[in-house]
Amino acid sequence: MSRSRVALVAMLLMLLIWTLALALGIGWALVGVSRWAADGATVAPVTRTLRADAVRVTTYNVLNRRSPATLRREISRLAASSDVLVLQEAQRVTVAPAGWRRYAGPNAYTKGRPVLWRVSRFAYVGAGSRLAQLRPFHRRTVWVALRDRQTGQRVTVVNYHGLPHVERAGHPRPGPRAGAYAVAMRRLGQLVTDHPGALVVAGDWNVSRWADKRVRWHGFPAAWQRRHPRLISADRFRSGPTLGRRTVDYAFSRKLVPVALAVRPRMGSDHRPVSVSYRWPIPRR
Question: Domain-by-domain residue ranges, the chain?
Answer without folding.
Answer: 1-38, 55-279
